[in-house]
From TrEMBL:
InterPro entries: ABC1_dom, Kinase-like_dom_sf, Prot_kinase_dom, UbiB_kinase. This is Protein kinase domain-containing protein. It comes from Sesamum angolense. Belongs to the protein kinase superfamily. ADCK protein kinase family. PANTHER family: CHAPERONE-ACTIVITY OF BC1 COMPLEX CABC1 -RELATED, PROTEIN KINASE SUPERFAMILY PROTEIN.
Length: 480
């Protein structure tokens, strides 16, 4: 078994020769201590050694960079590319050593012998002036904004100068737009998707022959509802109008489209607050002490927030969707083009585009909340009939005890913002879904009062509520 020698400490003598390091530049060995002939700087360091090391490092970097350039020149053929670019700049490729042209050619002569060069130059200036005037007028037309009120010719002129807007809506199925946080397809894809979904629903429901008609109509209504949701505010408004006419489209389709009244996706709160500030001309806190974080309802053209004034009054603040007027007018213009094509294909004598014009006038009128506020005040108080007695002149619908009308705040209402009194009540949709004896009693009471109110408007006052869909009706806790 091998023995292990003990560890013995070794002490170095103070007179031992100091260790040396080998210089990596020249391979020589140098001591750390100063030599006899070496001069030290005033600060006590070897400044000459530092300068020498820096120079060696710079030379090393230059050598490496030079090798890198050589590799790049060889790999990417930089000299050949540089020469080709230089030849192109100097037009050496088009040079012909055999060329014999000794002087510049003469100025081209006019093609019209009866006209001199000066006459042609003046004619060119005149033509240039005509073209400049044409494009100047065209540019001035581009500055004309979208008309405030619907006019078919003005709308046509506006979009004739902006064909790309219509093209992006019609011809680009993957062009996406954000509306209330939801990405929606454009017109072509929406209708194509609706057609496919409807055909699938018909196939899936064909097994039950007895319920086929009901299921088929309801599925068609659901597909139509989703399609109109995807197409935006204009088509949602059309779907809402159709949902109130089950006598025309059928009960099942009307039932499916009725979801358009209270299932519209909202747009972001920041945009709504910005619109309020732009319309009222001051920060929101100046007018309201509280505004709900989320909208309590979202409609096709706007959404409603519950708020409180500094006087402690609860109000409903209706805010219009951003850029809504441009979107609505654009869709009406597209619908007008479609009806014009349909008229030519069907060879109809009457102008089908008039339907789009009437729809456009009605929808554009709804975008002005000042007009809606004025109509609400007129609906509540003043009468349009000057021949009636004084009592009837003071009050129209507010004199009927079963009709409750919210108060309008004109100083908090502008073109895109409408502020009205907050009224609490049960909606028809809530009463139908509750299915309790109490809800059925309230629903019957709401229907009776609604019929009576409609007869009062039709036969006595002459002022009609123009949009009486379920989303705009409530049964007050006082039975109004």
């Amino acid at each position: 078994m091998a023995s292990v020698s003990p560890l013995v400490p070794v002490l170095c003598s103070t007179k031992a020769t100091p260790r040396t390091r080998k210089n990596h530049f020249n391979g020589s060995s140098k001591g750390f201590g100063p030599k006899k002939n070496q001069k030290l700087s005033k600060t006590g360091g070897g400044l000459g050694n530092i300068v020498e090391v820096v120079q060696k490092d710079v030379e090393f970097l230059k050598a490496g960079f030079s090798k890198g350039l050589q590799w790049a020149n060889k790999a990417f053929r930089i000299p050949e590319v540089s020469k080709s670019v230089e030849d192109l700049v100097w037009l050496r490729n088009v040079e012909d050593p055999q060329a014999k042209f000794s002087r510049f050619p003469s100025w081209p002569q006019p093609h019209y012998p009866e006209l001199s060069g000066v006459d042609l130059f003046l004619a060119d200036l005149k033509a240039l002036e005509v073209y400049v005037g044409y494009y100047y007028c065209l540019a001035k037309m581009w500055t004309k904004p979208l008309p405030e009120f619907y006019d078919a010719q003005e709308v046509t002129d506006y979009f004739t100068l902006r064909p790309h807007v219509v093209a992006l809506r019609l011809l680009e199925p993957w062009f996406l737009k954000v509306m209330g946080g939801k990405i929606i397809d454009e017109v072509f894809m929406a209708f194509a998707s609706a057609t496919i979904k409807f055909r699938i629903s018909r196939i899936s429901s064909a097994a039950d022959e007895d319920a086929h008609k009901i299921v088929s109509d309801y599925n068609f209504g659901i597909v139509l509802k989703d399609t109109m949701l995807n197409l935006g505010p204009t088509f949602i408004k059309v779907g809402q109008s159709l949902s109130t006419r089950p006598d025309i489209i059928g009960y099942e389709i009307s039932k499916a489209l009725s979801e358009l009244h209270d299932q519209i996706p909202p747009f972001p709160r920041d945009e709504a607050m910005k619109i309020i500030e732009e319309e009222l001309g001051a920060p929101v806190k100046t007018f309201f002490s509280y505004v709900s974080e989320e909208p309590v309802a979202a409609a096709s053209f706007g959404q409603v927030y519950k708020a409180s004034t500094h006087e402690g009054i609860d109000v409903a603040v209706k805010v219009q969707r951003p850029n809504l007027r441009h979107v609505v007018v654009r869709d009406i213009y597209i619908l007008r083009i479609g009806l014009g094509l349909l008229q030519k294909i069907a060879k109809r004598q009457n102008d089908l585009r008039l339907y789009a014009d009437e729809l456009g006038k009605g929808l554009i009128g709804e975008l002005d909340y000042n007009l809606e506020a004025a109509n609400a005040l007129e609906f509540k108080l003043p009468t349009p009939f000057a021949c009636c007695d004084a009592k009837f002149h003071k009050e129209v619908h507010s004199r009927f005890p079963f009709i409750c009308l919210p108060k309008v705040f004109p100083h908090l209402s502008k073109k895109r913002v409408l502020t009205m009194e907050w009224l609490v009540g049960d909606s028809p949709s809530e009463l139908i879904s509750a299915s309790s004896p109490e809800s059925k009693r309230k629903l019957l009471d709401l229907v009776n009062k609604g019929v009576e109110a409609s007869l009062v408007q039709l036969l006595e006052t002459g002022l009609m509520h123009a949009d009486p869909h379920p989303g705009n009706l409530r049964l007050h806790h006082l039975g109004k």
